[in-house]
Specification:
This protein is mainly beta. The protein contains 3 helices and 27 strands. The chain starts with a helix and ends with a strand.
């Protein structure tokens, strides 16, 4: 149980990081800069230096979706060699690599870390400034891994690129910022990919995007999930062909959506789809906090009806999940099938399938409830498939 609690505390931190990116200021009080802006702007954090042993927990990912996630691993530090997590470590998103030559640690490394303390995590999180004396990021100011400044008195337009895909960008013309007191001299602008499961309202589509506009000190400027410039901003949303192929998206059906102030997904009017260049482009004002690309999937009747030759239990998706996840499996022959859920003590808590099923592909949804209909607690669970004289087991994580 101690090991489970330790892992869950790590994963809870990861969830907050992902969800923080997906919550906009002005929409129900959620926001990347509402409570968690210290990750990007650590100006006000107390700086400490600690040493200890690093633990690295890699996160499993599949296909191109791996690139849409904010983190690929979770890092923690044990400062007194008791096997417990004393600090969570925040190195920024997976794509960030400082110019100093500093590298992300490996599991078991002994490190000395200087960083800013975020006490609203349990255990506390260190936003890493240096690692073994090498600079990781500046202790003040905006993040080095994303975004750029635009200035009120600029005579040229400003283009902000997505850090993981330069084909995705927003182009803000000069004169977009007003001269009144409500406008700062400069704005820090960010435009990033997002995993669709990290958007504040799920079911939006196959790919998410996030914008943020912040003035000096990390104070958010977006109001009601939008940024009202005086002139329209041109935005280019690029989707990789690999993602379209993996998800079997009907490319001609792709539409651009935005999240409005009532947390409803609405179609962006005037958006232009360019299938040849894999882009959706729009010129508009205001700029919204969250966007998503949505398209229908292509279903092959021949593929659906063909029986697989192997016994396969897929990893559930999404994982971690809240409140629902999907489990898929393939049966080479017809027969009796049992698909059950177990807790970390090995106790069967739910049976999803216990019946004769034909050969082929099957999908089951689970909403985190036990056999009596009660909602289970957050944590690690195992699901086991028994069929055709074979057994397969996989791990999943439910978060609330």
């Amino acid at each position: 149980m101690q090991q489970l609690n330790k892992f869950l505390s790590l994963f809870a931190a990861f969830a907050i990081i992902m969800i923080g990116e997906a919550l906009a200021q002005g929409m129900g009080g959620h926001g990347w800069h509402n409570g968690y802006h210290g990750m990007d702007w650590p100006d006000t954090l107390r700086t400490i230096t600690v040493s200890g042993k690093v633990r690295v927990d890699s996160l499993r990912h599949f296909g191109f979706m791996h690139n849409l996630d904010y983190q690929h691993a979770l890092y923690s530090l044990d400062t007194n060699s008791d096997g417990k997590t004393d600090y969570l470590l925040m190195f920024g998103p997976w794509w960030y690599q400082p110019k100093s030559g500093a590298q992300r640690p490996k599991n078991g490394d002994q490190l000395t870390i200087t960083g800013g303390v975020m006490t609203n995590f349990k255990p506390s999180m260190l936003v890493v400034f240096t690692i073994n004396g090498l600079k990781w990021r500046e202790p003040v100011g905006p993040p080095q891994w994303s975004g750029g400044w635009m200035h009120r008195n600029a005579t040229d337009s400003t283009r902000i690129y997505c850090p993981t895909d330069s084909s995705s960008w927003m182009h803000i013309p000069s004169g977009a910022m007003g001269m009144g007191m409500m406008w700062p001299d400069s704005l820090f602008c960010q435009f990033e990919w997002m995993h669709p499961d990290s958007l504040p309202v799920r079911g939006a589509g196959f790919m998410g995007f996030h914008t943020e506009f912040t003035r000096m000190g990390g104070h958010g400027m977006m109001n009601g999930g939008m940024m009202n410039f005086l002139r329209s901003t041109r935005m280019n949303f690029h989707y990789p062909q690999q993602l379209i192929d993996e998800l079997k998206i009907n490319e001609a059906s792709i539409q651009l959506f935005y999240l409005d102030s009532s947390n409803q997904w609405k179609v962006v009017s005037g958006a232009q789809l360019d299938i040849q260049n894999n882009t959706v482009t729009v010129t508009q004002s205001p700029v919204r906090n969250f966007y998503a690309l949505r398209g229908s999937t292509i279903t092959s009747v021949e593929e659906e009806n063909s029986a697989p030759i192997d016994f396969v239990l897929q990893q559930n998706y999404p994982n971690p999940f809240n409140p629902e996840t999907t489990i898929s499996y393939e049966l080479p022959v017809a027969g009796h099938v049992n698909l059950s859920i177990f807790n970390v003590r090995g106790e069967r808590v739910a049976t999803l399938v216990n019946a004769e099923e034909p050969a082929g592909k099957h999908t089951v949804r689970w909403r985190g409830i036990d056999s009596s209909g009660k909602t289970l607690a957050s944590g690690i669970y195992w699901y086991r498939l028994e069929a055709a004289g074979m057994t397969a087991t996989k791990k999943m994580i439910m978060m609330k």
